[in-house]
Please model this.
Amino acid sequence: MKRVQSALTWLDSRTGYKQLLHEGLYENVPGGSRWRYVWGSTLTFAFMVQIITGVFLWMAYSPSSQTAWESTFYIQHQMWGGWLLRGIHHFTAQAMTILLVFHLMQVLIDGAYKAPREINFWLGLVLLMLVLGLSLTGYLLPWDQKGFWATKVATNIMAITPFIGPELQRVVIGGADYGHHTLTRFFALHAGVLPGLMIFFIAGHVYLFRKHGLTPKEPKTKPDCAFWPDQVLKDVVACLAVLAAVLFLILKPRLFGHGELGAELGAPADPSEPFSAARPEWYFLFLFQFLKAKWLTGIFGHNGELVGAIIIPTLAVLVLFAMPFLGKWRLGHRFNIGFVCAIMAGAALLTYQAIQEDSHKPEYIAAVKQAQRDSERVKKLAKEKGIQVTGAASLLHDDPITQGPKLFAKNCASCHRYDGHNGMGLAVKDAQSAPDLNGFAMREWITGWVHSEKITSTNYFGATKFADGKMVRFVKKDAAKFTQEQVRQIAAALSAEAQLPSQAEADVRDAAIVDEGRKFMVSETARCTECHQFRKPDADATAPDLTGYGSREWLIGIISNPKHDRFYGKRNDRMPAFGEEKILDARSIELLADWLRSGATDTKVAAVK
Amino acid sequence: MDNVEKPQCCCSDRRGFLKKLAANVLGSVITLVPLAAGLAVWLDPVRRKTKTDGQLVRVATLNALPEDGVPRKFSVLASRVDAWNRSPQTAIGAVYLRREKGAAKPRAVNVVCPHAGCFVDYMDERQCYLCPCHNSTFALDGKINDPTSPSPRGLDELEVEVRKGGEVWVKFQNYRAGVAEKIPA
Model:
């Protein structure tokens, strides 16, 4: 103990740390400790948390367009406690925004911005803007669709700045297009420049705060007290509450049983994929909504965006900076408080409106679902297959489950349906005029073709020119007499031709039934081979080939060219030859075929009726 | 901090002590939570197991190896997992292959010096391997042939298999540097 004492005395004589500590801890708190003084400390704490977690994230993050999402995915899903680290960083950032508002309001209400504390108030406003800058730059770094498109909007707005807009935008994003240098620049700002400035301004802020002392809430009801331990304890408890709230937000999905733990990570940024679910972070939503207001363009014409995004916010900030002077007027103090309250109320209203509007838009809801699906899918693929050096976006480009529904919606859904919708879960305006392809080539689906009522429904031939063709007449007259067992055999045999991955087990298990079905199909009763070719070359066949029916090769063939003799030949209804006419490239047709054959259930979403 | 003079305060010594204790404890907790999350992520590499049974890789054919006893360097290309990336054919190291007259199969050594992991060069005129970092040398069979060598062991010999069509396969493995035993790294 004595040794420790003498070591500390030695240290003190060299550094004077005791004096510093004394000044730090025994600052006078006029009127005693109060809960309303905790906001500054909670902000300092939050900033410290961001530095700690940020430095550790930095050790695993890689800023480039092929590695940013990928390294974030790795942190979130593969590294020990990565979800917690990222979660703390993400939600503490959001907490800081709220704490800033509380701190500003407390300073305003207590009049702590007035002389001689003007400069400290300005330093605080600079800090506020630095925090918003950190939020904006941090939002892009995971390089997911959400951050990518939201930042694109933000930087495009920057481009409308008078005189220097386009150049400013080029400098900020590091070129004409978004890419490696957008990330390196944003990352340098986020992890270097802005935190450095923050530390500098916080030092000044705390120095001036100590110089002028605390602004007590009048009237003082209690005697003065030292900062340590009373106020420190209150501050620490408040910080603990902030941390608890952050941990709650991280664990919320587990507590309520759905979603991922911690911060969200969407599908990787992809300039070729539309992202209608793009919205700024919630605390910028009001600005987003404000810019959509019609009166802005109504009054200012095409300058509306400039006024809404740059001029009005700049004026509001100028008013904030002028508050120490405005406060000198008789009603100035009230004006200041009223002004900030009005902005807060306006922002709250606009935020509410933005959320409300979105919750009533089916396109937006479908886009959010689609975004979730893509994000889950890409993570699944990344975990199963690993990520190639070309980046994770290519996992989705080459994935039938992701691309199939999109291709179907664009190319097939004007006539066909998929479980009643367009493949993406949206209803289609045009009436259905070709078969529903959900469950394509599966046994149940095949059964419909030999069912006298189903075959004439719109889900099969009902709305095509084959509605009263040979096949329908045959099914109504002859197939109606098939026994249930015979129908089952046909379905098993024909479905086995497709060699569907999802039915591989059943095909092996029911080999005997399949065999019976094959015999029955060529029998005098079923007479399939009168028109179709089946398992034996038949030059006279007039209807689609049933050999390998629904197999990958067969399906690619019919999508490529239904007019081929092997399929409908000259009697093809309206279906375009997607391959032959070069409407789709070979890879797209493969993706479409693989998706239709996957019987994928995870792509199905409830059709928006 | 206790031996510093305190200004007059509002509470008793006992309550003051409890407050100080609580402030210290809670203060530590709120600092440790983010720190612990960060340290867990930072220590993630420690818990990841590396494969230590080597990877059989095709590196050359016998046609590329004249029976002259001269070592030739070949790159080892194999699939590699690097954090999030899985790459199919990437250079993961190199070996020297050497085939003596009449030998059924060539012998392979890892190019990495077992002392500190530098890449050893084959010196044709001196007929030995030279490590450029400490100028130590190894004989053609990989043994240390330099009395002042700082290396704890000779170059690491690797298992070789000759397959159909004269394909030379090597069981590629790196070993821990700086120790006398061959311990897979």
In short: Chain B is about 20% helix and 30% strand. The mean pLDDT of chain B is 90. Chain B touches chain A at residues 1, 4-11, 16, 19-20, 22-23, 26-27, 29-31, 33-44, 47, 81, 83-87 (CB under 8 Å).
